[in-house]
Amino acid sequence: MKKSGIIFILTIILLPATLFSQSKKWYPTSSGEIIFSAASIESNGNEGESVIRFSPVFNSQNHINRDFGDYFGMFSGLNVRNVGFIFKDEAGSGRTKYRTYNLGIPIGVKLGNLKENFLYGGYEIEFPFNYKEKRFVNEKKTEKFSVWFSKRVPTYYHSFILGLELKSGINFKLKYYLTSFFNKDFVEDVGGQPVKIYENFDVNVLYFSLSFDMFKAFNQSKQITRTEEVMY
Hints:
By secondary structure, this protein is mainly beta. The protein has helices at residues 3-22, 218-231, and strands spanning 27-32, 34-43, 46-47, 49-51, 53-55, 60-67, 72-88, 94-112, 118-137, 140-148, 157-165, 170-177, 188-190, 193-195, 201-212.
């Protein structure tokens, strides 16, 4: 890895802690995430078919936020995310489920009325730490394996996020991974010969997710509840 790449990654990792220590105006928020993922797939020069993958667990989003007034804010944090896709064979009789568990560090901005409805967007770097693959033929599972810190996938993924949070706390998010899902230089022994099995397998994951109160602090939720109780 190039020296500049290492410096960039270290900056992203250390930035949340540095920012949080500089001001008491930063506040934490957290939520889960229900993910619906698919992928753009090109296998040996042909477009592949992706099936929607539903992954409600285990996804944990933990942010630190700072609001500069009522209409602009920024956030960072530390997330754990279950991300993957389902690839359907050209013949249609088989499909393979691929997924990684990733540790993510986002950095982004919030724009709009932060007490009502607002947009947010930014960048997130994710580090995969567990890889899992399941193979099905005619709806029967034929193969399954899981590897910690597998070399089948890159060391890290680059991704962009864009979302909307409503006053009710409902949150909608789109996320696209710029980095291909697999490590194209990974070599596996096939019939006694070393083969780069992902060399011609280009996959970029895209997902839509639903969450609740992702940017709403716990004390904000309590304040809203107390206000409603007084009104009633």
